[in-house]
Amino acid sequence: MSDALRAHIAALVPELTALRRDLHAHPELGYAEHRTSAVVRAWLDGLDVPYRAGLARGTGVAAYLPATTADGAARPPIALRADMDALPIDEATGAPYASRSPGVMHACGHDGHTAILLGAAKVLSGLADRPNPVIFLFQPAEEGGAGGKRMVEEGALAGPDGLAAAVVYGLHGWPDVPVGHVATRPGALMAACNRFDIVVTGRGGHAAQPERTADPILAAAHVIVALQSVVSRNVPPGDAAVVTVASVHAGSAFNLVPAAATLSGTIRAFASDVYALLTRRIDEVARDVAAALGCEATVRWDTGFPATVNDVAATDRVVATARAALGADRVDAAFPPTMTAEDFAYYGQHAPACFFFLGVRDPAAARWPQLHQADYDFNDDAIAVGVELMVRLALALAPAMGDTTLR
Ligand SMILES: [Zn+2]
Ligand SMILES: [Zn+2]
């Protein structure tokens, strides 16, 4: 990229920082990103970039920027994705632009992702020379609502001529990575996840007459302990998996055995066979351990997210692009996979895709909050890096692009 283009991005940073902070001050939960979506549409209107709005239950936006070159019209588009939703958390950053909506905050930095993609749209729409069409995806409800799944189902991965995206790129601000650096890996980057709720039903009664009860608290306690055996005894040691019971609810009085106890938690895995194994064993362990203690367990599963699996060729392109932009020493191409999950996974099920982590941690800071913590804030110093990478990826004319390597 020319120095002129980099200077152009640098000149946009104050405007993008103000935009990011405005989004931060007005966070909205999944599928309720009405103001955010309006900000996105107004920005695109200002750039004269056409878009489809009203996607994914109303707030999703997919913009399309055609190529400018003669052969570019026949090329499949490159898709860039941002998420727009916030979390049900009371903000504790103390920032002057802190959330004005009590109980809702941008604790995952999606305000930064949206501002970066709008910045990339501004830069790209101003270029005379664009070899590829570009799709800009602004999706709702990443935090558990599977907004990405709806975007895909509603055709957001295709341009107006029906040509499907050759590749999809997405980024996430990452507190473990210093600002100015990028990290990713080919293959599984983020885990598949699901939520379980186990209801253990017994027979309530007087706490002084346990022989007349079937104690669901005792059974639930045994279920919790036995569930630890699923990862330690059933999953092959070379495979990664997590089973966490994160919530336990039972009882209302010290002298009464309740009739039921409820456990809730999450599973994580990369491989689909491990994911299936966790699901099957949790069902079996909960049911049979509860039965041994005279109770009955039923397990309810949510829909879950698939694993985010990076396409090898797309990841090579991200790594090469980031190395060219930032220097080889600032790009980690073999970042350890994380057990957190992302609904970017849905794009990767339909097109070659690469998700990468954009550094946000100030290396001079003694501590940087983790995602979803009440004092997490996206680092505005990462905006220019994010815009530059998205712009470079949209312009990259890889040799394989458009042929069989990238379907
Ligand atoms: Zn999040
Ligand atoms: Zn996030």
Can you describe this structure in just a few lines?
The chain is of the alpha/beta class. It has helices at 3-25, 34-47, 110-125, 147-153, 216-234, 272-292, 312-326, 345-348, 383-395; strands at 51-55, 60-65, 78-83, 134-139, 167-178, 182-183, 187-190, 192-201, 205-206, 241-250, 256-257, 260-269, 296-301, 308-310, 331-332, 353-361.
Please describe what this structure looks like.
The protein is α/β, with parallel strands linked by helices. The chain folds into 2 domains: 275 residues, Zn peptidases (Aminopeptidase), CATH 3.40.630; 110 residues, 2-Layer Sandwich (Alpha-Beta Plaits), CATH 3.30.70.360. It is built from 9 helices and 16 strands. The strands form 4 sheets. It has an 8-stranded mixed sheet with strand order 1-2-4-3-5-16-6-15, with helices on both faces. Strands 10-12-8-13 form a 4-stranded antiparallel sheet, with helices on one face. β3, α3 and β4 form a beta-alpha-beta unit. The longest helix has 23 residues. The site of one zinc ion has 4 residues, from loops.
